[in-house]
Please model this.
Amino acid sequence: MSTTVAVADGIFSIEDGQPKLLGSRCTNCGNHMFPRQRGCPKCMFDEQDDVELSTTGTLWTWTVQAFPPKSPPYLGPGGDDFVPYGVGYVELPGQLRVEARLTESDPEKLLIGMEMELVLDPLCIDDDGNQVVTYAFAPTQSSASEGARS
Amino acid sequence: MSNVAIVGIGMHEFGRNDGISGMDQGVVAVRRALADCGRQWSDMQFAVGGSMDGGAADTMVSRIGLTGLPFTNVVNGCATGGTALAQAVNTIESGAADVGIAIGFDKHEPGAFRIRGPRGKDWYGGSGLALTTQFFGMKITRYMHDYGISQQTLARVASKAFRNGSLNPMAWRRKPLSEQEVLDSLMLSYPLTQYMFCSPGEGGVAMIVCRADKAKEYTDRPIYLQAAAVRTRKFGSFEVLAPSIAIEHDPGPTAAASKAAFEMAGIGPEDVDVAQLQDTEAGAEIMHMAENGFCEHGEQEQMLAGGETEITGRLPVNTDGGCLANGEPIGASGLRQVYENVLQLRGDAGERQVPNHPKVAYTHVYGAPGISGVTILSR
Model:
């Protein structure tokens, strides 16, 4: 049985099959950062707490990646096996906007402001037979049905 | 009056130039700039040069002449050429030299730039996120949502670029394309199609700058640098290749560089007769019109429909075809804009000459990771 592994350590955690983004929060000004970093670009203070970021938010903007990115660095399928994917920034309320793959890639179904939730997204199988995953955002069930109606 | 003048300009044709290295395209540009003002390489008191993929600029002296001059390499993303010029201007203004040369050249592999992630394991590029094309798609998607810009207007920008490029013998893409052909081309990063994007390309540009009070010794048609400003992003601006951005908003480095340049020159956007604005893709030109102060956000829809940015319009934009028709050799691109403006101000732009003897010309470059460079020239 294959094991699910994250594309890199320190970007997101996986618990019970659910991802959580690993961010930082400035202890001085409260600014949130992703990925984790030391040194706040807003207030220049250098003490930050590790925090888990919200797993839900709203779609702030988006596009669709319609051609295969160069590999390396891209780990997903290329050539004839390439599958277009959405890319967007999702606003996590009171925190920040995170760039992410989107599980939806149909321009008719992507709407600025729609509710999104964090999921795992498979990229490739590594040399040891593990399923390599990254994080992505998916429309929530209610926002997906609203998108279909509009 | 400004303290620095541009007295010689040279360019190697932009495009796909098989059989000639990026640096040799830079060397051709240098020789043409020297010929333009009737000088020798040995007359140059300093050089500033840059390239992203073409090698260290200072090594070109082994082909042009080992005169011992101080030669500074600059690498500053898409603002490399603009930064080379700004450094050359500062060198003259400081009094350290009377005359010198700014050089930019490049040669990139075809297709979108291959960008490795910012830190450690490459999760960012590995996940399929490290593409500049995605940023441009996402920035214009939000802008169209906020300010009511249509996809037809994106096509108008691209069609104008190729129409202008068809009048420019130095341009890469010289075949006019209709708005419909632009819209019908391959969708690359929604809402941007293939012909709405520029391509990484090749080319070289060089320009000779000197003390303004000595300019007439070099040419009878000097062009004066009224401003050269470079700014980087502040907290809250929305930039290319950013895994996250703040919710709070900053208007970005373009607005800051533009404001600084207008203050330096002591004029405003209404005084500009011709502008070259970074058009990595069609949406960028539209957004940069407002970020540089030439209109309010959203007014571009009517301006494009009314032909106001055509060569014969109220504010001609990207008269040489811009990045869309010339491609983007990173090191040379910002200097290409200045080269075009010098031609326009001299009245040497041929079929694409802006009418009524333009007096003030503006350039703007933008690039990763959030940097803008602006120049203002005058006759």
In short: The longest strand of chain B covers residues 4-15. Residues 149 and 318 of chain B are 19 Å apart (CA to CA).
